[in-house]
Amino acid sequence: MDRIMNRPLSRRRIIGGLTVGGAGAALAMMPRFGGVAVATRAAQSTPAAPAADAPSGPFTLESLPYDYAALEPHIDTMTMQIHHDKHHQAYVDNLNKAIADLPDLHAMSANELIRNLDQVPEDKRTAVRNNAGGHVNHSLFWELMTPGGGGEATGAIAEAITAGFGDLAAFQEAVITAGLGRFGSGWVWVVLGEDGKLAVTSTPNQDNPVMEGGSDPILGVDVWEHAYYLKYQNKRKDYLTAWWNTVNWQTVNARYDQALTG
User: Fold this and answer.
1) How many C-beta atoms surround the C-beta of residue 146 within 10 A?
2) What is the largest CA-CA distance in the chain?
3) How many angstroms separate the CA atoms of 136 and 168, rounded?
4) What pLDDT is attached to residue 46?
């Protein structure tokens, strides 16, 4: 699939008076190195400071593995900063709040929590499902993208794509179609099916396939509007198409190998 190089919106249209932690100033004239935008000091991927009233707990937000600007022009700097520092941070804070008085759950990872929701008291189950799911899904999402990513699939995943879909273009189209078909907010996933082949599915909200006893996702794409709206507005297909220019095939291969070995 051709690499999509959408021309960024003007700073005035993107920011529209909105600033997040001084990010508006950082976007003014961002230098570029080797064709990739280099973040200014205000736009580096330092973890967001929790709000003063944020509940303490066992879960914390890790820094992005790259600068906020590193995925330009496919995913814009402001979106990455808000997505990570505001939305993901909120899932972490709300998860800590939900289990604050449930010390037996503090030793469990977020992944273990969403696999064992039946162990969560019923009155806290929805909050844990939504917020532990949001934490797990976003933590994976950041790792599935990389500066200078995309291109042709390599390694074992390339062979699996050919076996299951014929070629990379058909595979990408299947993921895009599933993302467009997800009504409202949610995720599109690539998992290992029961027949041993790759399968494309989607879930609503912050659900994850493991919540229903499925395997860990090999690949996942966020189709909540907050993942793309500043740059792409209502054009979800444009976002899903451009997203392939960020995919980290090394991570996808590692997750595919993990799925094969159980």
Assistant:
1) 18
2) 52
3) 27
4) 58
Residues 132 and 71 both lie in one domain: yes
Give per-residue pLDDT as tens, 82-128.
Answer: 999 999 999 999 999 999 999 999 999 999 999 999 999 999 999 99
Q: What's 45's domain CATH number?
A: 1.10.287.990
Instruction: Output the pLDDT for position 49.
Output: 54
Number of domains in the chain: 2
* Whether 123 and 215 share a structural domain: no
117 and 171 share one domain = no
* Residues lower than pLDDT 50 in the chain: 1-43
pLDDT score recorded for residue 185? 97
- How far is Cα 221 from Cα 202, in angstroms, rounded to an integer? 9
Distance CA(95)–CA(193), nearest Å, equals: 30
Are 86 and 185 found together in one domain? no
Contact 115, 211 (CB under 8 A): yes
Task: Kindly state whether residues 207 and 87 are assigned to the same domain.
Answer: no
CATH at residue 205 = 3.55.40.20
Closest by alpha carbon to 181, among 223, 226, 230?
Answer: 223
Cα distance between the two ends of the chain: 31
Q: What is the dihedral of CA 8, 9, 10, 15, to 10 degrees?
A: -110
Domain region containing 235: 155-261
Q: Domain ends where: 99, 120, 143?
A: 143
Mark out the alpha helices in 37-109 (DSSP H runs).
77-82, 89-98
Q: 17-31 pLDDT, tens per residue?
A: 343 344 333 333 333
Question: At 118, which amino acid appears?
Answer: D
Whether 162 is in a domain gets the answer: yes
Give the pTM.
0.81
Amino acid, single-letter form, for residue 145: M
